[in-house]
Amino acid sequence: MTDLHALAAKVAAEGEGPRLPAASPVDQTMIRHWTEAIGDANPRYRGQDAIAPPAMIQVWSMYGLDRASARRIRVPLDDLLDALTEAGYTGVVATNCEHTYHRHVVPGDELTSATRLTDLAGPKKTALGDGYFVTWNVTWYAQDEPVAEMIFRLLKFRPREKRSPSEERKPYPLRPAQNRDTAFFWEGARSGELRIQKCGDCGELRHPPGPLCPSCRSTERTYAVAAGTGVVYSYVVHHNPPVPGRETPFVVAVVELPEGVRIVGNVVDCAAAEVEIGMPVRVAYHVMDDELTLPMWTPVQHRES
Amino acid sequence: MTGTALAGIGATEFSKNSGRSELQLAAEAVFAALDDAGLAPADVDGLVTYTQDSNQEIALAREVGIGDLTYFSRVHYGGGAACGTVAHAAMAVATGAAEVVVCYRAFNERSGRRFGQPDARLSGEPSSQGLEMSWHVPYGLMTPAAWVAMFAQRYMHEYGAKSEDFGRVAVAMRRHAASNPAAWFYQRPITLDDHQASKWIVEPLHLLDCCQESDGAVALVVTSAERARDLRRTPAMITAAAQGAGAGQMMMTSYYRDDMTGLAEMGVVGRKLWQISGLSAADIQAAILYDHFTPFVLTQLEELGFCARGEAKDFIRDGGIEIDGHLPVNPHGGQLGEAYIHGMNGIAEGVRQIRGTSVNQVSDVENVLVTAGTGVPTSGLILSRG
C-alpha cells in the first residue's frame, strides 16, 4: 500500500489547489434560512449590520443539489480519494472538523475556498473495517484575505464483507503469536513476500528473527525478500493424532534457502511419498483466513534442458 | 556435588487412570520416599520440582506435614528438568541452604492433560516460547512425536539408520519391562516385526517408537553423603550433576543450527558430567537414557561418548543395550516400557542399580549415568556406590 502513501506525498507537495468561487455572494436570505433551521435567534445575524454566523462558513462553498460531475472542478485531493475508492476503501465517515475564524464574514463578501492535503494515515484496523484517515485543510478567502480555515478528517474504509454463513471463512485455528520483532514476516506473507530478517548494520540474515543481531548486537533491523526457492532439508509426514485445521496425512519440512537460512513450512501439491530430502521447492502463499497467510512449499519440476 | 547422595526413592503405582488428584499422587510418592530413607516429613526443609508440575511446593508441604522450608526451586523445560531437580537439591545441600531436599514429579498425564495431543495454545502468547512455537505450530508441526521425527529423518539420511534401528530400542525396553512387575508393559514384550507393523504416528516414527502415557508420581530424597550413610538404605552418591543447553537452542525444534543430527545440549551435559566426575564412558556399567522417542536414544549414546557419531545403530544391534549387552540401558524398561513419569522413574532405577536392588539388576555396578528429556534444555547425573 506504499503507492497510496506515495500518491499522498505527491498531492501534499502540490499544496493548495485552485481557489473555487462560492456559488453566490454571502447574503441575508441564506443567513435567515440557516439561523431558522438551526434555531439560532442571535440578533447579530439580523438587520442592517448583520454578520454571517461563523459556523456557517462551509455553507457558502458547498456544492448545491446539482451534482453533475461536469460542473465539478477537480482538486488535487480528489486524486487521493479516488485512489482509495479504487483500492476498495469505498466507505466514508467524517471523524474530525475544526474551524478557525480570522474575521467575520458579512453580506456581500464574495468568497473562494481552496483545499490542501495535510496527512494520510493507515492502513488502520477500525470497527468499521480496515481504512485510511485522510486529513485536509480548507481556507476561505475574501479576495486574498483568509477569513476562515477548517481542518477536516475522514476515514475511507473497506466495508466488512457480509457473507452468508455457508460462505464465511472460518478462522484457521493454528495461529502464530506475533510481536514487534516478528510481525514483518507475517505481513510479508500476506503481501506475497518471504521476508528474512537482515541486520541493518552488518547485513547478516537470520531466521527465525529476533530483536538483535546476534553477530554485531545491532538493533537496526531490516529484511531481505528471499528468492522463494529452497531445498527440503528434512521433513515429516503427520498421520496421528488429528490436528485441528488440517487433514492428515500432511507434510511439514525444514527448507534450506539459497540465502543461507532454514525455515519450516508445509510441502503441498504433491503426494507425501514423493517428498524427499534434497527436493527443490518453491514458495507458495496459502491464504488460511482473512488475517493469516502461510508460506508453503511446492515441488519444482525438473526439466530436461 | 561431592558429599551429596540420594537416600530415598518412592513412587505410586504407574497407571492409565490413577483415580486421584495430582497432589495426592505427589504426597503418596513423598511419603514412600521418606519411608524408604527412614526420614520423617519434619526432617525435610527443601523441595524441588518441574515448572510444569501443577503441585506447588507449599501445597505439598501442607499435605505431608512438612514444616519450615528453607529451599525451594523449580526447573524448566519439560522433561529436561528431571536430573536438574537433583542437581538443584544437591547444590542446596552442598551449600547448606537445606539439609534434606525432596524432588518430586506427579501428574495424571494419561487421564488428564496429555502432552502428545495438539494444543493450539502453544503458540497463543507472544512470550519467547510462544513466538518460537509460532514458526512451527501454524504448519501443524505441534506434537512431540512430530518435532522428534524431523530430527530423526535427517539423522537417517546422514547416517543411513533405518526404522528398524529405532525399533531395536523399543524391543530392548519392552524386554526389560516384561520382567519388571512395576512396569505397565510387564510380561508384554514386543518383536521388531511388531514395531514395524505398528501404525504411523509421524513418519518416520511408528507408534512403538513413542513412549506410553502414564499417571503416577515419583519422589527422591537428597541429603548429605554423611547423613545418608546413617540412614536405612545404601546411599547412591551424586558423583556429578549437570544441566545443559546448546547454542541455538530451542524447545524441541532446534532445526536452525548447523547440525540437525545431534543433541548439542546433551553433549554439554555429557562433557560437564565427565569433567566433574573425572570418569569416562568406559566407567559406566548401566545407563538410564531418556526414551520418550526411540531415535534420541541413539543420539544420546553418541553425544555421551558411548560410541562415535552415526554409529549408534551398530552399537545397539544384537542386543547391545539390553540387560546382557555391552551397555545395559534402562533395565526397568524405560518410559517406553515402565512408565512415562517425565524421567523421574529413571532416576529411581539408577538408585536401585547402585543399591543392587533392581528387579533387572546389572552385575557389578559402580557408576550409573542418568539423562533427562531430549530435544529440550536437559540435565544428567552420575550416581555411584559410596
TrEMBL record, chain A:
Keyword Ligase among record annotations: no
Entry keywords, A to Z: DNA-binding
Name this polypeptide is given: DNA-binding protein
Molecular function, one GO term: DNA binding
Pfam families listed in its UniProt record: FAS1_DH_region (PF13452), OB_ChsH2_C (PF01796), zf-ChsH2 (PF12172)
Domain ChsH2 C-terminal OB-fold: 226-285
Superkingdom of source: Bacteria
SUPFAM superfamilies: Nucleic acid-binding proteins (SSF50249), Thioesterase/thiol ester dehydrase-isomerase (SSF54637)
Residue span, ChsH2 rubredoxin-like zinc ribbon domain: 186-220
Domain FAS1-like dehydratase: residue ranges: 24-150
Automatic annotation (TrEMBL), chain B:
Residues in Thiolase N-terminal domain copies: 21-225
Protein name as it appears in the record: Lipid-transfer protein
Gene3D superfamilies to which the protein is assigned, alphabetical: 3.40.47.10
Pfam families noted in UniProt: Thiolase_C_1 (PF22691), Thiolase_N (PF00108)
Family matches, as InterPro entries: Thiolase, Thiolase-like, Thiolase_C_2, Thiolase_N
Stretches that traverse the bilayer: none
Residues annotated as domain Thiolase C-terminal: 256-377
Annotated GO MF terms: acyltransferase activity, transferring groups other than amino-acyl groups
Lineage of the species this protein comes from: Bacteria, Bacillati, Actinomycetota, Actinomycetes, Streptosporangiales
PANTHER family: ACETYL-COA C-ACETYLTRANSFERASE, NON-SPECIFIC LIPID-TRANSFER PROTEIN-LIKE 2
